[in-house]
Amino acid sequence: MTTDEVRASASDRCCLDFRVAARTPIYALIAFIFACLTACTDLDNRVSSEGRSAATPVGKEVAWWQRAVMYEIYVRSFKDSNGDGTGDLTGIASRLDYLANLGVDAIWITPFYPSPQVDFGYDVSGYTDVDPQFGTLGDFDRLVEEAHGQGIKVIIDLVLNHTSDRHPWFLASRSSRESPYRDWYVWRDAVNGGPPNRWASIFEPSAWTLDVKSDQYYYHAFYSAQPDLNWRNPAVEKAMFKCVRFWLERGVDGLRLDAFPTLFEDPLLRDEEPVDSSDGDERWYERFRYQHSMFPETYGVLRRLRQLSDSYARQVLLIPEAYLPTMADLAALYGDQDDLAQLPFNFFLANVDSLNAGAFRRVVSETESVLQGRWTTYVLGNHDLPRAIDRYGNPENDLKVAKLLATMLLTLRGTPFLYYGEEVGMVTTLPRTIDEVRDPIGRTGWPEEKGRDGERTPMQWTPDLHSGFSSANPWLRIPPSAIQRNVLSQGDDPHSVLNYYKRAIALRRQSAALQVGKYAPIGDHPGVFAYLRTTARQTMVVGLNMSSERVVLPLSQVGLEREGKLHVSLSSSGREGTSVASHQLVLDPFEALVGEYERGQDL
Ligand code: BGC
User: What's the CA gap between 532 and 535, in Å, rounded?
Assistant: First the structure.
């Protein structure tokens, strides 16, 4: 497959309604599925009606995750330490120096628990252990200790909604209708000789699978190998919270809560209203209204989980994966008393379907106004979405676009989540034949739907065989682009994407305005997303030219003195260290620039 085909295919995938899509969410579906160290006491925590945010309260109020740069590691694909072609925990530990040097503050590790690997770890058959292919509990403890030693926090992925069908709880549950575990899952009688209703699974046509022996159907929001737990049974919560404690005792700093909105289903099993598919993507939520609504019980679980995590002396972070229909739904996940999750995933930025300055600006303005100053996340890529570089770039401009996107993620008011490999410009690399496909979505959907393997290929460390990921043949093919796009080759090139990420992260770390300052959009240029980040002592101007034209953007309306200057702190076209006028920004096509404002009298 040519590079063009790969990209076209990745972009087609965004249009399929039930799988990975940045814009539509399988993700719509799975979907549902700093102090300004300079302490600025004049800043409050409200958002004004113009969409200008107030800065975060300062000093001791700033939590670690507000300053942090997060980095998602797809454990199978980061680094293989034992030569079996699959990444593992010791492999991650061996790359902590790299991560510390990159400047990340926390890693989120995808599931490494015992699992038949039908959904690559998101089908858990034991919640308090490590799958032998990823290592041992001892390896996990060492990883946490060494990460902490490098100042890196560890976030693990908690799969609450479902287990594997090989989990002992499910084996017991399906063994007979009388089993004490029967009610731990969602079992229903057949209706008219078929499934209890017409609910669809996110990964399969029906969300119900018949257990022939006990002659009842069980419910699964995802694969039939991932039966949903019945969270209305208090025993389920009790058992799962015990598992949570197990990991919290081992020192983890946060929990990413997989597929959180799918925890509860409508007890009346109401069928979904038929949806007119010609309406496009907007109605995806309607299709799953009863299956995946945020029922009041869902908030109850989150509140109790927060109480549990708050009972630890350190600040433990909860990050629900929540593809939701509206920003107001996202706001509800914080709780009226801020007693639910501290950092629900905000996928609205990733839902923007093209490099569109106006669309990104609208998402950020809406985030600022609807969340009313609450701290958000910004994320463009993960293990379920085609890589952002392909969704927003093309082969001619993609390295520029990679720097543009990095600048946006790392300068917005919210915690950025990076996805491994984006820092070297890794591209989505789809399987060429069905035999190469590993993700079951790709196997059942081939050839229209090629699955999520494309965004899960091994990390590109070196230009060598297997890209330095493993000494063995890796579980997924190494992308041809690994020869140029790898950590080793980019390390010495000051203009590389990797070194740009390092500079951008370093800048964020040293700038109170970029970490916790107010956000205010500059103008409404259709091709340029520009904004200010300010504290009482620092003003940073960010200009992101998302167009193929050179643009001159007036800055006069944002109150910067004409005789001032912008000291260029970061530039995708090598202008760092220079000064430019502060009454207008001149940006080359696809250029990103961050400048610190210096008043005339300071010069
Ligand atoms: C994970 C997916 C997984 C699904 C089912 C998601 O939200 O990110 O990779 O397939 O949950 O567990």
Answer: 10
